[in-house]
Amino acid sequence: MANSSGIGRQGSIGAEDVFGFERLPVFPFAVVMIFCLCVPAVGVAALLLQLAAFGAVLAISWRRLPAILFMALPFALLPIFAAMSALWSDVPMISLRYGVQLLITVLMGVVLARVLDLRQLVLAVFIGVSLACILGLASGRTGASEGGVVLIGLAGSKNQISYFALFWIGSALCVLASARYRPFTRIAAALMLLPAAFVLWQGNSMTAIVSAALMAAMLALLALAHWLGRGGRMFALAAAGLLAAPVLVGLPQIEAEATRFRSDVLGKDSRLTGRTLLWEAADSLIRQQPVIGHGYKAIWLGPQGKGLLARNDQDDGRAFHFHDTFRELQADLGLVGLLLFLVPVGFVFLRSIALLIARVDAPRAFAVVTLLTILLRVRTELVIGPFLTETVVLYAVLAALLALPLGSSEREAERTDVPRHRASPRTRSRPERKPA
C-alpha cells in the first residue's frame, strides 16, 4: 500500500509538470539576463546568452505565458507600432527588425516582473549588476572623455557604466535596508556600496552623479515615510507636490541658470557637446511627419541620417541618437509613438503614488525611485531602445508596480508575507473511520 501511494504522488507531480523542467528556479536565469544587459562590450556572446536565459525563463513559466502576455499588452503597444512603421518607413526591413527587437526587450522586462516578486527582482538586479561591474573593474578598460581617460569597464561608455552604478547603489541600499533578506546578503550589499560609489565617480558623468544625489534623497524621504501612517504619507506627498509647483513654473529660468553654471563655472560646452544642434535637427524632422513619424530607426539607419552622422563625426547610426527620448520617439514614430510611451508610464506613475500611500518598504521604494531616476534622463538620454538596459529595467519596474495590489497596508503585508504551505498527502487530515 505504501508503494502504491508513493506511485500515486509521483504520478500527480508528473501530471502537473508535463516536461519536468517546470520545477527549475527562474531566479538564476533572471540574474544571467541582467548580467548580460550590463556587459554590452562583450558583444554578440552576451546577447546570445541573454536570449538563451530569456528563453529558459519562458520555457519554465510556459503555463503562465497567456496571463503574462495579456498584462504586457499596454506596454507592448509601442514596440508593436514601431514594427508596424515598416509600412511607411524609408527602410522598411530595418524598421521591422528593430521593432521586433524592441518588442523582445520590453517583454524581457515584463516577464522578469511577473515570474519574480518585487523582492526577488531587486535581489536579481543587485547580483547581476554587481557581477558585471566587478568584472568591469577587473578588466580595467578605459575610454576617452572631455576630462581625460575614464573607466568604462564592460559597459562600453562612461555614461553607461555610471548608469549601471546607479542601479548598483540603489539595489544595494534597498537590500541593505530590508529585513526580509538574509544577513549575509545584507552584509554583501553594504560591502558593495564602496566600489559602486567608486565606479560612479570614475565614470565622470555629471548627469549620473546628480541622479545619484536625487536617488539618495528620495530613498531617505521614503525611509522616513515608512514610519508615517497613511494620512501622514498622503500629507507629505501633497506637500511635496505644492513645493514642486513653483519649481515647474520657474523651470525655464532654472534651466537658463543651469546652462550658465555649466558653461561659466564647470567649463562645459554651452551647446551641451553638440546636443542643441541635434535637437534642432530633430525638431525639423518632427515637423515633417508629426503624427506617425518617419519609421522606427529610419533616421539614423536610413538615407536621412547620413548627413547628421557625418556632422557629428559618426559612421554607425546603430548606437547614435538625439540624446532626448521624447524627440527620438517623435522623429521615429510621431505623436502616436510618444503617447504610446507616455500613457502607460503616466498611469503607473500615478498608481505608484497610491502604492506609497498604502505602504512603503525597501523593494517598493527601489521600484519607484528607479522609475523616477530613469524618467529624469528622458530629456537628455535615450532610455527606450532594443536590448537597452534602461528599457528592460524600466518596463520591469513598471510591470511590477502595476501588479502590486493597491489595498496592501503594512498589517496586510505582514500577514501575506508569511508563507503558506500546502498540506502534504501524508499530513492532510482525513475523516476517522467508524468501526463496523
Outline of the structure:
With 436 residues, the protein is mainly α.
Overview of the molecule:
It is a single chain. This protein is mostly helical and 436 residues long. Helices cover 68% and strands 2% of the residues. It contains 17 helices and 2 strands. It has helices spanning 2-16, 27-37, 44-60, 65-84, 92-115, 118-139, 158-177, 183-203, 206-225, 230-249, 251-265, 275-288, 305-311, 325-358, 362-375, 389-403, 410-417; strands spanning 142-145, 148-151. The protein has a two-stranded antiparallel ribbon with strand order 1-2. The radius of gyration is 24 Å and the shape is globular.
Features:
436 residues, disordered N terminus, two-stranded antiparallel sheet, disordered C terminus, 2 strands
Elements, N to C (H/E): HHHHHHEEHHHHHHHHHHH
Structural shape: globular
- Rg from Cα: 24 Å
Q: Give the number of DSSP strands.
A: 2
- Determine the N-to-C terminus distance: 22 Å
Q: What is the makeup of the main sheet?
A: 2 strands, antiparallel
Strand order of the largest sheet: 1-2
Round the mean pLDDT to the nearest integer and report it. 81
State the helix count.
17
| Category from helices, strands and their pairing | mainly alpha
Helix content: 55-70%
SS strand fraction: under 5%
Low-confidence stretches: 1-15, 409-436
Any chance you could write out the topology, listing elements then pairs?
Blueprint: H1 2-16, H2 27-37, H3 44-60, H4 65-84, H5 92-115, H6 118-139, E1 142-145, E2 148-151, H7 158-177, H8 183-203, H9 206-225, H10 230-249, H11 251-265, H12 275-288, H13 305-311, H14 325-358, H15 362-375, H16 389-403, H17 410-417
Antiparallel strand pairs: 1-2
Helix pairs in contact: 2-3, 2-6, 4-5, 4-14, 5-16, 6-7, 6-8, 6-15, 7-8, 7-9, 7-15, 9-15, 10-14, 12-14, 14-15, 14-16, 15-16
